[in-house]
Specification:
CATH superfamily: Stage III sporulation protein AH-like
Distance between the termini: 104 Å
Order of helices and strands: HHHEEHHEEHE
Number of helices: 6
Strand content: 5-15%
Radius of gyration: 29 Å
CATH class: Mainly Alpha
Largest sheet: 3 strands, mixed
Helix content: 55-70%
Shape: elongated
């Protein structure tokens, strides 16, 4: 019988780094990295926007602009904020509120303890918000196409509030706005409030 040569093969032991990863688990490392990145983002946000006067943050973004009336009917000048900042601030505020609502509804959908009825209701809520966003965007685009510099549309069930950038509104302009709102949402003119800013 022939002697078979036996070769000794070297079995490599995993490196210390690889052993640590295998022991902890890739999933846990990814979770730790995600938590670290979120913490870094929060810290960076705090550093950049903690002192609005120093860093030019969002101080006063939601303050009214132009003239406002107090309870006695006296006009007050609010300062140098332009009408454009009003429209921008309103759109930002509206988007934040919607983002928060969608986040809450999405948490219900993602929660494994939620029953199917709750998940269906949350999905319907998300769909309704998305539909409202689309309708408002259409209204705003169509109204600005009619010659208004800026517009903000806010839908709330069977009512709509439209704010346009104009000194005065002519009856023909009001009719155009009402027609656009009705075409996009089905809301009758009695449910539409038009405000010129």
């Amino acid at each position: 019988m022939k002697k078979q040569a036996t070769e000794l093969t070297e079995v490599r032991q995993p490196g210390k780094f690889r052993a640590v990863i295998m022991k902890i688990g890739k999933r846990n490392i990814l979770i730790a990295c995600a938590v670290f990145l979120i913490g870094a983002a929060v810290l960076l946000n705090w550093i950049l926007f903690a002192d609005p006067a120093k860093n030019g943050g969002y101080d006063g973004y939601d303050q009214p602009s132009g003239n406002i009336s107090d309870n006695l009917g006296n006009n007050q000048d609010t300062g140098s904020n332009s009408a454009g900042s009003y429209f921008s601030a309103t759109q930002v505020s509206r988007q934040r509120a919607r983002d928060e609502a969608i986040e809450v509804l999405q948490a219900v959908v993602d929660n494994p303890d939620s029953d199917e009825a709750m998940k269906s209701e949350a999905l319907a809520g998300i769909s309704a918000i998305a539909d409202e966003i689309q309708k408002e965007a259409n209204i705003e685009s169509l109204i600005t196409a009619k010659g208004f510099a800026q517009c903000v549309a806010v839908l709330n069930g069977d009512t709509a509030s439209i704010v346009v950038s104009a000194d005065t509104l002519q009856p023909a302009q009001i009719a155009q706005i009402n027609a656009i709102v009705y075409e996009q949402t089905g809301i009758a003119p009695t449910g539409v409030t038009i405000i010129n800013k």
